[in-house]
Amino acid sequence: MPSQPPSGFVLDAAADERPQPDLIERLRATPTTRVLAVRGDRAQLRGGALVWRAPADVSEAAEWGFLGRDENGDAVLVAALPPIADETDAAGWESLRMSAGDLAPTEAAAFVTAVALARWFADFGFCPRCGAPALLRQSGWSRRCTGCGREQFPRTDPAIIVAVRDAADEHILLGQNASWAAAGRFSTFAGFVEAGESLESAVSRELFEEAGVQVADAIYRSSQAWPYPRSLMLGFHATAVDPAAARPDGEEIVAVRWFSRAEIADALAGTGPVALPGSASIARRLIRDWCEGGA
Fold first, then answer.
1. Which residues pair with 255 in a beta bridge?
2. In the structure, what pLDDT confidence band is assigned to residue 88 with cuts at 50, 70 and 90?
3. Do residues 160 and 199 touch, judged by C-beta distance below 8 A?
């Protein structure tokens, strides 16, 4: 997704409003409030744009959160509905992973925040310390335990994602996850940052574990919120010390391969030789950066 949003739908988090205890109730009673309903990681799309509802149009039971205010000052809410259990009921509901790259950048950002918050609603309803129910507060942005009183907030887990090139900068190393083999997809390498680990250490560890290469000159590029399940992807470019050492770990990564710029240009155009990550992902941005010489 582009880093600079165009004019149009702009979302102000308006975090100073969140502590108001009756904010959600008041905004649900306000006709100009816009609501994004999500089911798991899906929202309704129409004509290449998100479907925004009025509060009165959300008749299903939902958990509510305050996303902020748009450029007109109108409130924007998320209504987290039960996930879709049967694919026959999924018509019109598109996943963030598959559709965000086709949305306007600011709509994609609203979709990401809505899914991240809704997943936190679903996964953290109980206190991690004593196990008692934890009730939503601050308009969906915190929970307070009904037992011990502990307060918790939406969780974000840092993860690194890395595009690796050879020393001559003529090839890029991509890997194939075991779950992608049937689709013929290759991508950059990624993994969660472990406790006590720096980002640079995580880059070195993950590349050696997954692809057998030691890397140098790790350069930060950009980040992307990615609620699968609740990640902040921190994108890097790095250089392989010994390209010939590349090999898959045989478990998570089943194949690694060096690609030329011509091959990547063809893949970005959809003409081969392999499938690449979708346009919503930072992985594709890192690959395009390298291909276009902007790394």
1. 176
2. low
3. yes
